[in-house]
Amino acid sequence: MKKLRTIKTKYIATNEEYFEAKSLLPQPIVKHIPQWWRKMKGTTHQDAIDVMWMKRTINIKSCPSFIDIYKEGIVLLAPCDIRVSFDDVDDIWTWRSPIEMFPNEPATNLVTFHNDDQMKNYLPPTSKTRVVFKINLPLLVQVPKGYKLRLTPVPFQYNEDFKTIEGIFNPKFQPQVNILLEYISPKNEILIKQGTPLAVHIPYKKDDIEIETEMYNDKDHSKIRYGNSLFNKGRFHNSYLRNQPHF
Fold this sequence. Notes:
The chain is mainly beta. It is built from five helices and 16 strands. It is globular and about 70 Å long.
């Protein structure tokens, strides 16, 4: 079996205290499989053909499209508590943190707010976005030549306070790690706790994509359609429990 190529993604901390807090540094996404998924248990139902057989209900825990999400990607965490709030008296957005994450870079703030004309004013009302803000992490990032970073939300987190904005980053031109977020909470203040998963980095190689669509025909496509069908359907998989009472 051909060995997969290792894509070395290097993060360079610019804050010594942050570098020493290893559990807050970027980490593999497999460490962030949601607890509701881990606790999920299989259920059974009566087989449609033989009432004396019970069949396990296939759920997302055995779905490759879910499992494979947690095989690639690097999770970025909040380095400290971050309070973001709206002052309705002065009509301004503010933020606070208990520690200065850029003590040697006075021009860099942990949190910055986007002007509404940059994005928010153009969003549909269904977005629920009240303001767009950015969290700058005390990190620089490097990837191999020819690679970029895709930034995505952490999957299946169901956060009601903020939403991570997807993006593509080229560390060659922008090595500073930052995360763009939409404030969606109806509350005038949210607290992003230290260690909260904020986003995922997925390194990928930039290639041109060519799209081709054609009509199905048996001569050219039957092997694609049926090549593995019998292997998938012709055996009793572990989804079956034989001779189990159905009460």
